[in-house]
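Course assignment 3, question 2. Fill in each field.
Student: A.L.
Task: Predict the tertiary structure for the chain below.
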Amino acid sequence: MGERDEITHFVRGTLGCGCPDAVFDSIVVEPVVQAAGGLPALQLLIGSRLLIQLVVPPRDAAAAGWIERLAAAGRAARDRHGYNRFRLVVVTSPGQALPAGLDERFVRLAGTDERIHLHVVAQDHLPEALSRPLAAVSSAVGTTVRTEAK
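Answer field:
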């Protein structure tokens, strides 16, 4: 299975996206550092309609408010660029406990906005096409990868 197929399967199967096939003709994967949260993330733009950011949660308590900052920045980017949805994916390591109240904190920020979603995904459920770049971006922001349909 190629990178494009791996990403499409992850977005549809794991995240539950019901986007039409044509949306997946263009997939852009790029590292970003959120100015608002200061956390490196792996960003996917699917067909100029769906914005997804994958992030490894911080391990230190000093990073309070990181989920709110990332969600607010993602929603702002979605609105600014006219994307249909924003999905924030928190990627956990085996045995890693999430901060208490993560869902509630996200819901408080999202309110009734049905076009913003939080997903918690175990590292071993990421396809290789995303786990490698996410690992690289967690240590240093790298280069942009484009996957276009031929």
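Instructor remarks: The chain has one domain: 3-148. Residues 3-148 form one domain.
Grade: pending
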